Structure prediction request, 436 residues.
Amino acid sequence: MRRHRFMIQLIRGFKDILPNEIELWKHIEQTAITLFESFGFRQIRVPILEKAALFQRSIGEHTDIVEKEMYTFPTEKGELITLRPEATASIVRAYLQQRMYAKDPIQKLYTLGPMFRKERPQKGRYRQFYQINAEVFGIESPYIDAQMIFMLTRFFRQLSITGLEVHLNSLGCPLCRPAFKKALSGMLMEKGDALCSECIRRRDTNPLRVLDCKRPGCQSVVENAPAITDYLCDDCARHFDRVKACLERMGIPYVVSPRLVRGLDYYTRTAFEIQTRELGAQNAVAGGGRYDTLVEALGGPSQPAVGFAVGLDRLVDLALTKTRASELTPDIFIAAMGEAAQEKAFEWSCELGREGIKTEIDFSDRSLKALMKRANRLGAGYVLMVGDQELDRGTAVLRNMRTREQTEIALSGVLGGVKSQLRAASDGRPHGDSQL
RNA sequence: GUGAGAGUAGCUCAGUUGGCAGAGCACCAGGUUGUGGCCCUGGUGGCCGUGGGUUCAAGUCCCAUCUCUCACCCCA
Prediction:
């Protein structure tokens, strides 16, 4: 195979997802869709490309995402457009532009699809990655914050993913956060000698980000920094207490992480992250929180909102360590020998496929032994054999690959015979992809 | 963006001080003239990631580049 010279490879950090793995993706997506809809969420689909300004305004100019991770291109007219690095901004945009709030300010929406960030690829981190997002607009109550976290834990439970931790924090609101910011940056000014260069810059632009810098020097500085939860105003404190109480009531364990700060500017009050220890450095499988000021900041009415994003790629990685990627095995394999038999077999395969029976057929003119080997490798439950002998006798042979039993079926009644055999076999045992 | 490791058959990997490109699995065929899994025999398959350089000679040494992996960073 001389192909390297001309072979074009995929872009760094991008990947192909092959059929075997897709079964798992579909299962995860379907689980989310069913669950979210039972909680009253409806699907929305928004574009992958948006104007760059949308993300600059929503995510924040001084975030890593906007400063260095976005795929941004100029159009012919010179307008900057961006491959979305996250979905919330687009959903808010749609909520406003389509005036969804006018019909009903309360909207519960979910979406799923690819996001793009130009980071250095790593385990669990890709430049095109997939998220499932859920957002609630128009509800300020802490109950909904807790319910979304509850819904997430249900989701992971349904996928049999264990060993997760809920990390929780409150980031305050425009009323109380400034006081905390002031206290924090004052403290960072005093004791900031050990800060890394990045954090010295952040100290002015976005002091909260210094809190979750993982460098030892910054950690030690931050160790006895004031906790934001001590600065919350009465409303924010009550809100936070309520969220915690609800989680306790629903039996969801959580850890309050005062240093948990979201990488996006728009968050207020509740912030949370769901982490695992099994994925190395990229330990967040879901993250989200409240963003009560974003809708208004993007030019809409003042409406509170909460949301989260689940990292699908990481979920798949986790699930792959538990369950093996599944093969989709055919119900029946048709082994046809000779020209005349293949003609019959072709018709049967079309008919059986139309009936919803997973049918595999090999049109290469090979020995029965070779065809049987292939049927076995594909994991076919049955093999239907037909050749000149069978055509002369007016029958085909149906072999149960598990029990090795063979029965003869009249050529005229092949479809009915195969169907009744398959039905009889599947009655006794569980069928299909139940091991997921 | 920074650092470290790796790229040889479809897959997992050997390859000595630079000297004819290897194994296991998989695949194909035969053993069994029409019956799978086990076994035996044989076979197909490689510009050694790509491009340059050093050398009589490069999978091996040097440079560049691409991709992967892990970490920093960041987050889903």
Q: What stands out?
A: Chain A is about 40% helix and 20% strand.
